[in-house]
Amino acid sequence: MKRGRPTGLFVGLCTLDVIQLVDHAPGSNEKLTAREQVVAAGGPAANAAVAFGHLGGTATLLTAMGVHPLGVGVAADLNALGVTVYDLAADSAEPPAVSSVLVTASTGERAVASTNATAHRLTPPDDLDALVAACDIVEFDGHHMELAVAAARSARALGRKTLFDGGSWKPGTEDLLPFIDVAVCSADFRPPGTSTPADTLRFLRDRGVAWAAVSGGADPVVWAGPDGAGTVDVPSVEVADTVGAGDVLHGALAYYLVEGHLTSEDFAEALSAAAVVASRACASFGTRAWMREGWPGLPRI
């Protein structure tokens, strides 16, 4: 059982997401009228922090945002959801990264264009160790890699759990992995020389990651750890929108992993609970509707 309120530090990307629900992806020179739109803070680390906070945790996001009006709006959106934003680009007047997302109504599949974290190179703040020490778990999305490695190194030295969201292989990932306790990667995460989930799990184990898993949309999550391996089924839902589902998975997993020493049973149970939350997020359009009042109770473990 959990005691107290879990605290999480989320290190990585924050964007302004403009999400449009369309009948089909437009062709060259085609204009479409969207059925619906959502404008909200986004990015893997930011969405994970929101999910962690919604489940009952206290979330801090370490990222780059700036003082451009769009960045101020992004920060306000996160603050309204209870996420504390620590902005390492607070003096920047440049706009934040904007993710343009088209969601096809009939399938829930999405197409995304974004500059991601290319506009900023973040150096670790002087109080990084204090930020890490104040949390139970640190989650990384692989963006702002220099900052991520420094925070992960600090977490390892201070005995805090670390969780890696492997959406895709990025330069510098090999420097981060030795400080990661748990890695949950998408099927698109392909380390050098790998082609299957089994290859990826083996690669992560050889780099010192004790607990690892590979997700594949609606397919079972494949996992492996020091004392076991297995699969976790993903609940079947009518998919409306897959935007941010992996981010929600990681935010929920961070919440469920906070307490105690990991065993195979604990890891599989946490993955299963996180998969329930992520599946629920896929059943509605946008990245926020799943958190509205009136939705069935979320897993408690």
Report on this model:
The chain has a single domain, classed as UDP-N-acetylmuramoyl-L-alanine:D-glutamate ligase, CATH 3.40.1190.20. It is built from eight helices and 13 strands. The radius of gyration is 18 Å and the shape is globular. The strands form two sheets. It has a nine-stranded mixed beta sheet, with helices on both faces. A four-stranded mixed beta sheet has the order 3-2-6-7. The longest helix has 19 residues, at 264-282. α1 (44-54) crosses α7 and α7 (245-257) runs antiparallel to α8. The protein has 301 residues and is α/β, with parallel strands linked by helices.
Topology at a glance:
Blueprint (H helix, E strand, L loop, with lengths): L6 E5 L3 E8 L13 E7 L1 H11 L3 E6 L5 H12 L3 E4 L10 E7 L5 E4 L14 H6 L3 E4 L4 H14 L2 E6 L6 H4 L5 E5 L10 H10 L4 E6 L2 E7 L2 E5 L12 H13 L6 H19 L19
Parallel strand pairs: 1-4, 1-8, 2-6, 4-5, 8-9, 9-10, 10-11
Antiparallel strand pairs: 2-3, 6-7, 11-12, 12-13
Keywords: Kinase, Transferase
GO molecular function, one term: kinase activity
Protein name: PfkB family carbohydrate kinase
What is the CATH top level name?
A: Alpha Beta
Average pLDDT reading: 93
Distance between the ends: 7 Å
- Number of beta strands: 13
The CATH topology: UDP-N-acetylmuramoyl-L-alanine:D-glutamate ligase
| Helical residues, percent | 25-40%
| Beta-strand content | 15-25%
Query: What is the correct CATH architecture?
Result: 3-Layer(aba) Sandwich
Weakly predicted, low-confidence segments:
none
How many separate domains make up the residues? 1
Gross morphology is globular
Order of strands in the sheet with most strands? 5-4-1-8-9-10-11-12-13
Count the helices. How many?
A: 8
Q: From the helix content, strand content and strand pairing, which structural class follows?
A: alpha/beta
Radius of gyration: 18 Å
Largest sheet: 9 strands, mixed
The arrangement of helices and strands along the chain is EEEHEHEEEHEHEHEHEEEHH
CATH homologous superfamily title: Ribokinase
Keywords: Kinase, Transferase
GO molecular function: kinase activity
Domain Carbohydrate kinase PfkB: 10-289
Pfam family, one: PfkB
